[in-house]
Amino acid sequence: MPINTTFTEMQNLPALPGLIHVPGRWYTNTIANANTVATMTANVLFATPILVPVTRVYSLIGINVTTASATRNIRLGLYADKSVSTGSTDGGYPDALVLDAGVVSAATILARWLPLNKLLKSGWYWMAAVLDGGTPAVNHMTAAGCLPFMGFSSLTDVTFHVGWSKSFTYAALPDPFGGGAVTTVNVPAVRLYI
Question: Domain 33-193: which topology?
Fold first, then answer.
């Protein structure tokens, strides 16, 4: 691949073996290889990247609650990468809201999901989650277990930057995502199902 290959050209490459999403399976951050259980932080909107290798319908979006927090809820959704929403080569962060999927309860320990039923064109998307309060624990992707998708800030930087986050008072998901900063903490493991 030439060094001047654009982000859009990279999206148009054939899907790699192992990146083909097949029916009957859940998919999460393409670059994660380690998971943990951690308390979710309230009123912080997290977004983690997922590569949709070929155009297809994804039927569900979900998260696994491992420690309950009475009367608490998690809102899930999906954002397009800026390159997908604008057709530009400028990407690498969440932009237009594709779908606010709604709310799952964190009041009991249970894998939770919502209907998505969305045709997604091949490209990068961002799975989003925000908690309204309390201290439920959910599966998280460990920052150290992800590839440094967001790059490094300098030649001496050794911190893995794995997604975006921003302070956000719990409500319907904003459109566009807007603002935020690259995050270096473990991020909630939101998953898509075909």
Answer: Jelly Rolls (2.60.120)
